[in-house]
Automatic annotation (TrEMBL):
Domain Histidine kinase/HSP90-like ATPase: 336-422
Domain Phage shock protein PspC N-terminal span(s) in chain numbering: 17-73
Keywords for the protein's UniProt record, in alphabetical order: Kinase, Membrane, Transferase, Transmembrane, Transmembrane helix, Two-component regulatory system
Keyword Transmembrane: yes
GO biological process: phosphorelay signal transduction system
Pfam families recorded: HATPase_c, PspC
Residues annotated as transmembrane: 44-71, 108-126, 132-151, 172-195, 207-227
GO terms assigned for molecular function: kinase activity
Start-end of Basic and acidic residues biased regions: 409-423
Annotated signal sequence range: none
Protein name: ATP-binding protein
Amino acid sequence: MTTQGEQGATPPVAAPRRLVRPLERANVAGVAAGLAEHTGVSVWVIRGVFVLLGAWQLVGLAAYLALWLVIPPATTGHAAPGVDAASRRGMRQVTNASSGVRRDLGQLAAFALVWAGLLWLVQLLGRGLAPQTLAIALLLATGLGLVWWQADRAGGSVREAADGLRGWTRSLARHWSTVAAHGVAACCLAGAVALVVLEGPSSPPTLLGGLALLLGGLVLMAVPWVLRAQRALAQVREEKLLSDARADLAAHLHDSVLQTLALIQRQADHPREVVRLARRQERELRAWLYGSDEQAATLRAALQEAASDVEDRFPVSVESVTVGDDPALTPALGELVKAAREAMTNAAKHSGASVIDVYAEVNEDVVEVFVRDRGRGFDLDSVPEDRHGLRGSIVERMGRHHGTARITSDPDRGTEVSLEMKR
């Protein structure tokens, strides 16, 4: 069955670009690369700004760590269906997004040396932090950076990260570098706490300050792992939804499409039956994919539904086209559709034609429907009185609702039923 051409689709609105950290282009954490990609500014300029601000009382270093914490790492989207299926079946290796990172160590060393020189100059001029405060800040930054860097590049699957403490422990122990980094970070934190406690006056505020530093450092070290676990849980939920959708699709294909294909194989010697089965399956699949109302609410939908019903009951093809407006199905238009359905049924049963054309034209004050076949026509005067399909279901039905029906038939040219109803 052919329906009216689909209307022009509205172009999709581009989603706003998110600020993320592209780990594959990162020298440290990808903060500068992410800002450069998001703003369009050169990554060299952004890295230079961080270096200059970091030399003055470590402002740039604090800003970098804060952005590192709040900007999520970039995640790869879903692969093409074939590639995705091959990955699920283990036919291709899936690597972590950060596993193939190639850092420019020369550039990283150059920036580090420039920053160290500027920091030394600022401290020499007396514009920097107190030596004890500077040492504590550098120890904390080093420890946090090591832990967060490992959280970004931790091995293990997504499900391990979403498995709570056990998954975190397995991921932590997967490589020696991860354990070593956490050990060094713990030493840095302990050194920072020791500087606060031992270098300060022996008083309760000093001890409380050391305790607060210890607890705050532990919390900050755990934050990226918690965020990683949350993102992993969200990904697991998304994969579960996709898996359920695939299972539903597979079940529907088995119950409908595959069964229809089996019927087509058995009916290979009957072309009309094959066409009927294929068209019926096409309608069912379209209804399942795009949804359909339980009951047609407009004229176009009602005519399409009537044509589909005739195609299901008879080995014919009904080509249905509706032009003009698509008015709501009023009681009068409902009777018009019933008459058109009866005309389609009569053509399918008696004309011998394989194709029936249905053309509906909606004007401002009247609706016209034409049902035409090119099969065997008949003589209207020779129709028996007991043939209620033509008289009762078409002509008299239209007359009772202030409509008209005209039937034109020729033995060699087929039959046309013209129906007209006021809106």
